[in-house]
């Protein structure tokens, strides 16, 4: 198993801490989703004027940059130009860092009917895919928000039909939020799945909360992760298993990354042994 993590899980760490801890804990790569309080990481010196120096530090530690996770919501018309510019910035970073993926969200469809939303997201994703592909990368649409259901995502990917586009399977969201079974997700989307987010949770009273679940350390919740890993292995998946510990969004509720990250690596290494 190739292991990565998003920097959403360590919002207080500076770049040296991220690199040193990633190496020490046994990760293979880093997925940038924010740094030093800035979500648009291309604006930071570490990933602009000093990008080559940062690349050397990451490479010297035996690590790669597996993905740049954007805030793009591909269906949006209002933010279309902003989204295209963001993809261009990340495509530039993909060239510098040898990174294969840019994560995007499908986004909320609001008052749009599903057919119009599908038309828009297909149009926008084709344009984003062309930009990414020119830099040797792909835009990956996450199974999230109004595109969690594979029945909505499948026709999008069929119509986009571009080498520069793929799917990020968040193993948690379809199962937890709509009860979608892993086999259904794979049957619909497997040919496009390039990348996987991993996290666990338990159901809780949703009153006053963003979601009716609470994230917990892997193996301590109700998501059938090992069943999902077996499915991925059986289907020949060779991509990253990426820990998305949402510490930045739930700072008081979630364990510190110094606890959660090494626990994740150990859990995943144990799972890999069981799959042999």
UniProtKB/TrEMBL annotation:
Q: Which residues form a coiled coil?
A: none
Tell me which Pfam families the record gives: AP_endonuc_2
- Xylose isomerase-like TIM barrel domain residues are 20-256
Q: Which SUPFAM superfamilies match?
A: Xylose isomerase-like
What this protein is called in its record is TIM barrel protein
Identify the species of origin: Paenibacillus foliorum
């Amino acid at each position: 198993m190739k292991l990565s993590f998003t920097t959403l899980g360590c919002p207080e760490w500076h770049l040296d801490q991220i690199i040193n801890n990633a190496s020490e804990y046994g990760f293979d790569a880093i997925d940038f989703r924010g740094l030093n309080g800035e979500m648009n990481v291309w604006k930071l010196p570490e990933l602009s004027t000093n990008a080559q120096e940062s690349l050397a530090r990451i490479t010297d530690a035996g690590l790669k940059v597996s993905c740049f996770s954007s805030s793009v919501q591909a269906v949006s018309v209002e933010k279309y130009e902003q989204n295209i510019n963001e993809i261009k910035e990340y495509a530039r970073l993909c060239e510098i860092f040898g990174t294969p993926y840019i994560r995007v969200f499908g986004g909320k469809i609001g008052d749009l009917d599903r057919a119009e939303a599908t038309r828009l997201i297909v149009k926008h994703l084709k344009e984003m895919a062309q930009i990414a592909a020119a830099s040797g990368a792909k835009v990956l649409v996450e199974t999230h928000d109004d595109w969690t259901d594979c029945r909505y995502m499948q026709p999008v990917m069929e119509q986009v039909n571009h080498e520069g586009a793929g799917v990020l399977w968040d193993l948690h969201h379809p199962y937890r939020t709509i009860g979608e079974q892993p086999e259904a997700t794979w049957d619909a989307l497997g040919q496009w799945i390039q990348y996987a987010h991993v996290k666990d949770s338990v159901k809780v009273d949703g009153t006053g909360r963003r979601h009716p679940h609470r994230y917990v350390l892997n193996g301590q919740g109700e998501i059938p992760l090992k069943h999902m890993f077996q499915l991925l292995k059986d289907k020949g998946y060779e991509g990253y298993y990426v820990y998305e510990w949402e510490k930045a969004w739930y700072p008081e509720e979630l364990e510190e990354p110094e606890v959660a990250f090494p626990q994740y690596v150990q859990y995943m290494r144990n799972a890999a042994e069981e799959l042999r």
